[in-house]
């Protein structure tokens, strides 16, 4: 299984941008890069996903390296509500490869 | 907008008892996933269903079984409960498009085995 590597924890100041890195050197050509986050005492929440091109949505941006061996989730202005564990997950296409398998995420703390 | 509904929110059981957790997916979603999250752990995939058929199996113990019914709701049945089964159990649903659709998670059922 392709795996991801993320820092255990990161800290940010409120209203500043946050860049959460993820390494996935064994990514296959059909693996999508997904980001989910889990706020305290809640279920995981979808943030964004992409394949090759950078992606933007109302929550965040996803920057994918040209060789796809790494990616960065960008929160443009962190708020206290963004304090959560962020998971970078590789998800294949179809069958068991399509399951969402959580690894070790990054715990983001946001300081006022 | 309707979300994934799980019941009960909290459940307390004794060792060796049985428990049934229920999950009601978002309307029109055809796929259900079950996850287990122990204290301080990351969510672990247990099992998934697509169109009422088991789609894939993860680290689900033999003491657990699950099914998806004709109305697409799902139940996770747990027997011979052990202390180590104490965890947060999440259900997620999606509408399978074959294009890496997003999963929507419920708020979970907190199971405590005493």
Integer-rounded radius of gyration of chain A: 13 Å
Number of helical segments with 4 or more residues of chain A: 0
| Mean pLDDT across every amino acid position of chain A | 92
Largest sheet of chain A: 5 strands, mixed
Order of helices and strands of chain A: EEEEEEEEE
Distance from first to last alpha carbon of chain A: 39 Å
* Separation, N- and C-terminal Cα atoms of chain B: 36 Å
Largest sheet data of chain B: 7 strands, mixed
User: What is the helix fraction of residues of chain B, given as a range?
Assistant: under 10%
- Which sequence of SSEs, written as H and E, runs from N to C of chain B? EEEEEEEEEEE
Biggest interface goes to: A-B, 25 and 21 residues
Give me a quick take on this structure.
The complex is a heterodimer of chains A (112) and B (114). With 112 residues, chain A is mainly beta.
3D structure, described in words:
The complex is a heterodimer of chains A (112) and B (114). Chain A is an all-beta fold and 112 residues long. In chain A, 0% of the residues lie in helices and 45% in strands. Chain A contains no helices and 9 strands. In chain A, strand 6 (61-64) and strand 7 (70-75) form a beta hairpin. Chain A is globular. Chain A starts with 8 loop residues before the first strand and ends with a strand. The mean pLDDT of chain A is 92. Chain B is mostly beta strands. The radius of gyration of chain B is 13 Å and the shape is globular. In chain B, strands 2, 4, 5, 6, 9, 10 and 11 form a 7-stranded mixed beta sheet that branches. Chain B has a 4-stranded antiparallel beta sheet with strand order 1-3-8-7, with no helix packed on it. The chains are: A mainly beta (112), B mainly beta (114). Chain A binds chain B through residues 32, 34, 36, 38, 42-46, 49, 85, 87, 91, 93-96, 98-105, and chain B through 4, 33, 35, 42-45, 48, 56, 58, 90, 92, 98, 100, 102-108.
């Amino acid at each position: 299984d392709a795996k991801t590597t993320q820092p255990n924890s990161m800290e940010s100041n409120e209203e500043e941008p946050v860049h959460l890195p993820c390494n996935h050197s064994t990514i296959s050509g059909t693996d999508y890069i997904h980001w989910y986050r889990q706020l305290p005492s809640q279920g995981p929440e979808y943030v964004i996903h992409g394949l090759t091109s950078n992606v933007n949505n109302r929550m965040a941006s996803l920057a994918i390296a040209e060789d796809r061996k790494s990616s960065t989730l960008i929160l443009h202005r962190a708020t206290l509500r963004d304090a959560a564990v962020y998971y970078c997950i590789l998800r294949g296409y179809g069958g068991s490869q399509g399951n969402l398998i959580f690894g070790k995420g990054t715990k983001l703390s946001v300081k006022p | 907008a309707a979300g994934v509904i799980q019941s009960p929110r909290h459940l307390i059981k004794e060792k060796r008892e049985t428990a049934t957790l229920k999950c009601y997916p978002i309307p029109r979603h055809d796929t259900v996933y079950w996850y287990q999250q122990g204290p301080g752990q990351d969510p672990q995939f247990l099992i998934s269903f697509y169109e009422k058929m088991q789609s894939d199996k993860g680290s689900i113990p033999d003491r657990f079984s699950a099914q998806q019914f004709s109305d697409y709701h799902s139940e996770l049945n747990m027997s011979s409960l052990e202390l180590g089964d104490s965890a947060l159990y999440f259900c997620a649903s999606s509408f399978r498009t074959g294009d890496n659709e997003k999963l929507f998670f419920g708020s979970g059922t907190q199971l405590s085995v005493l």
